[in-house]
């Protein structure tokens, strides 16, 4: 399946794959041959090998993003609150979690679990017939 290979092409190399690449390159195999056997791009194989020869390690660098403010337990608590009461607000969830996080963070956690916001109606939606009856009254 060509689609699967294309998506796999851009995933991060696992530790096992990095070790496999280094082993095959050390054995004298070409970059193209290694890339074909590991099912990765030649560029990925070349970068892994260069990192090994320059730095002597194949471990990935730490990410540059901000550190997490919530634990996995906090994340589960956010989702559980939304499941128990679908009309709960983000402000209420934030206060219950007890961690200083943005409301957008809560929305992102809920979106990851495919939960949509459910707000109660201010008023019942009126059909065309309801409107006409109301006008006649």
TrEMBL record:
A GO MF label: DNA binding
An example Gene Ontology CC term for this record: nucleus
Organism the protein comes from: Trichonephila clavipes
InterPro entries to which the protein is assigned, alphabetical: Homeodomain-like_sf (IPR009057), Transposase_Tc1-like (IPR002492)
Primary localization class, coarse: nucleus
Annotated compartments: Nucleus
Protein's name according to its UniProt entry: Transposable element Tcb1 transposase
Pfam families: HTH_Tnp_Tc3_2 (PF01498)
Family annotation (Gene3D superfamilies): Homeodomain-like
